[in-house]
Amino acid sequence: MGKITSMLGLLLTHPTEFRTLVQFYLFHEQKRDITAQQEHPTSGWDRSTMRRCWDFLDMTSRSFSAVIKELDGDLARTICIYYLVLRGLDTIEDDMTIPDEIKQPLLRSFHDKTVTPGWTFTESGPNEKDRQLLVEYSAVVGEVNLLAPEYKEIILNICAKMEVGMADYAHKAATAGLVYLETVAEYDLYCHYVAGLVGEGLTRIWSASGKEAPWLCEELELANSMGLLLQKTNIIRDFREDVEEQRFFWPKEIWAKYGFEEMKDLYEKGDVEHATWIQSGMILDALRHACDALDYLRLLKTQTVFVFCAVPVCMAMATLSLCFMNPEMFQRNIKIRKAEAAKLIMQATNTREVALIFRDYARKIHDKAKPQDPNFLRVSVMCCKIEQWYEQNYPSFVIMGENGITYDPSDKRTAVAKIEEKRAMQNNPTNSSRSEPEMFPWELATYVVSAFVLVLGLSVGVVYTILKVYGDE
Amino acid sequence: MSTQQKDVYLVIGGSGFVGRHIVDHLLARGDVVSVFDIVQRHHDVPFYAGDITDEQQVLNAIRKVSMFVGCIRLDGVNNRSCLQSGATCIIHTASPPHGAKDPSIYHKVNVDGTRAVIDAAVAAGVPKLVYTSSAGVAFDGSDVINLDERAPYPEKPFDAYNDSKAKGEALILEANGKGGLLTVALRPAGIFGPGDRQMMVGLYQAYQRGQTHFQVGNNNNLFDYTYVGNLAQAHLLAADKLVPPSDTKPVDPELRSSLGYALPSVSATTGFRRVPTCLARPLGPYVTPPPNASAIEAAFNAPHDPHEPTHPVRRSRFDQFSENSLELASSNPLQVAGQAFFITNGEPVYFWDFMRVVWLALDPPTEEGRKRAQRARWVIPRMFGMVLGFLAECWAGLIGKEAGFTRYRVGYSCATRYHNIEKARRVLGYEPQVGLEEGVSKMVEWFKAENGLA
């Protein structure tokens, strides 16, 4: 009922968004049904422990669960388990009710706990939203132990690296009394531990699965940039919530200016203009991972892996553009609109489309930039790097129409393409007939003629039968 | 310990904006340099006054350039002096300013003058000639989007200036190999910096008239700018790399194989930060250091090499370094001799943003100065701008004055014009050192000092 009234409200206030959402609900179907009988061998739906894991995935992640379930073969189950392991670790890290002397050994041995049959953890604070996952963690442990050994090794390796980083930072906060990250380098390192490593692990899993190039797992900087773009976006968007809960991720190097001495000054002092300059500094920092993310996507081959990686980074770009120069962000948790998210999910199907999405958001950001902001020119340069990336990889003078490829005559690069085509023809005149568009499509003609003959034959047959059966009456 | 003999430079047009910066860079690295120009503006280097279109005058200057060099004997003992005579590298950077009253001067200097320089260089047996061309040689009025050096000269020249630059450049590139002469052409776009007498003047006029809040077009058009110091650096690189191509190994195999990997993004303005990975990261607030601690920390802190190939790159067939395009290239784009190179800051920005930053730098640090920047911008759509431009031109025609707001200017400020400098980065090893922000502040500082502004 609530859904219907909200949709009706949307129809009146935002008719185009209403259309997008209707399209999304009607046409965007789940590509894979993990509960189906034939999927059981790879999805593990026939095991109660794995079914429980799929439940947990739905409970702990709204945004990732759909794209994870669409992954091919046993990748879906593997990534689901990978996600739950890291979610379990994260729940312990986040929990401020666990004292440091208990938290330290717990975090640092989490990769062992994750393969210890029957292990559970029931001492999470009452307000931890994912505490139930740890209460029933033995289900995850059981499933980790059933994973293909190469996947299991990657997951445990990443878990071991991440837990050390988390424990180090938690220990520093608990003992040194330093609550803030000082430099951008420290902020980057923190994001590497909690998100960059996730990207490294995912990339190693793609390579190990054989669905992506074996060398992809060596592109550590690109993999980290994917994670950092997402993590930094969340850190920017969740500013208010985090500050109120005493979680301070923004580095002092960016915000300790213009008389801001504590992070809450950004909304308490009423200095909106300077606060938005700090905000643009944070967004500028996140944007330096945007082209890396595009480079990463460009190297992928498998469609479902691509969608899995592309959708979240598109959402991140949308969120960054929503937050940019937006004072609302300091007051409450802002989110991109549902219809916008639906549109992105439908659009983000190949690198070219994703690059166009990035470019659109870059332009939106640039539109809101203010010259007085000291970050102004660097924001502009960063947005232009996205524009350049698009033109370098998918030059806009090449127009893909119904009749094949045409070139935009008003673009100087058209002259280059024409000269090269002419040279290619001169170098290899035998090939020239291949590019002749007027060539008669014999293969297609054969199909058309045979289809025609088939239909004609069937009609004659039907008419003949009817006449034969009823003709005598 | 270089065994290569140092070049003796003659900078033609060395009193000009770009020429002077080249002289400064050469002096800074201890090179021997002389200047040939029509007027003398500096007195720290030997100067030869003359007319560039007169081959004999250029030739005389080339021959007069002389120096004592410490000659190194085969046994390595540096114990005698000898006289070397004549320039070994000419940097030809003379060009009349765009916007001259009589356009015939363009042809005279850029085409006839360049021909005279080439002839003189060949006659004197000078081995190297570096020419300052212009990105405008490929401009025909339509949008220039991420253009690379394969683009042909326009069939219909855009204007007399760009036409003369294209013809001059063509002469230079054709002259490569003539009588042992090696040539290279550099094509800068939107040069700015201390000493500029074109861009800054126009921007300051608009500032004085209080027109800084007008914006024609939607400002989604990217534009290239080149800091003059970066351009000077590119000239030195081009001169150094201008060596006879080897017959046995026409393509440097290392360079060729590196084409499969991306170059790091230019970071002169944005700054470089290494993305931490599990193999290259700071150690952070560790309790016990990881086993490979020193290695991962060293990898993270290693100096950034802007030309170190990074990840594998997939190139479309329209890419200049795709297999397809390399095969079809009319000349070897991976060598320096006989080639043209776009030289820019490699970080194009939206057209109006650059202006805004210059204007902001001009503002005095007072409340009044801040007020100007706060003014809401007025966006004039391109079509409307064209109509206004037409009317302004008519009005100017009626009262017999030159119009300030013209259709040409509207078109210019709405056009996209940026170039791809991957060839210069890969082949010349060029890398912009001074970013846009730093460059603008250097330019405005100089401009204020020069004009006695606060």
TrEMBL record, chain A:
It comes from the Eukaryota. It is an enzyme of class 2 (transferase). Its EC number is 2.5.1.21. One of its GO terms (molecular function) is squalene synthase [NAD(P)H] activity. The chain crosses the membrane at residues 305-325, 444-467. One of its GO terms (biological process) is farnesyl diphosphate metabolic process. It catalyses: 2 (2E,6E)-farnesyl diphosphate + NADH + H(+) = squalene + 2 diphosphate + NAD(+); 2 (2E,6E)-farnesyl diphosphate + NADPH + H(+) = squalene + 2 diphosphate + NADP(+). The keyword NADP does not apply. Catalyzes the condensation of 2 farnesyl pyrophosphate (FPP) moieties to form squalene. Belongs to the phytoene/squalene synthase family. This is Squalene synthase.
Automatic annotation (TrEMBL), chain B:
The keyword Transferase does not apply. Residues 10-249 form the 3-beta hydroxysteroid dehydrogenase/isomerase domain. One of its GO terms (molecular function) is oxidoreductase activity, acting on the CH-OH group of donors, NAD or NADP as acceptor. One of its GO terms (biological process) is steroid biosynthetic process. The keyword Oxidoreductase applies. Pfam families: 3Beta_HSD. Signal peptide: none annotated. Keywords: Oxidoreductase. It comes from the Eukaryota. Gene3D superfamilies: NAD(P)-binding Rossmann-like Domain. Belongs to the 3-beta-HSD family. This is 3-beta hydroxysteroid dehydrogenase/isomerase domain-containing protein. It comes from Paxillus involutus ATCC 200175.
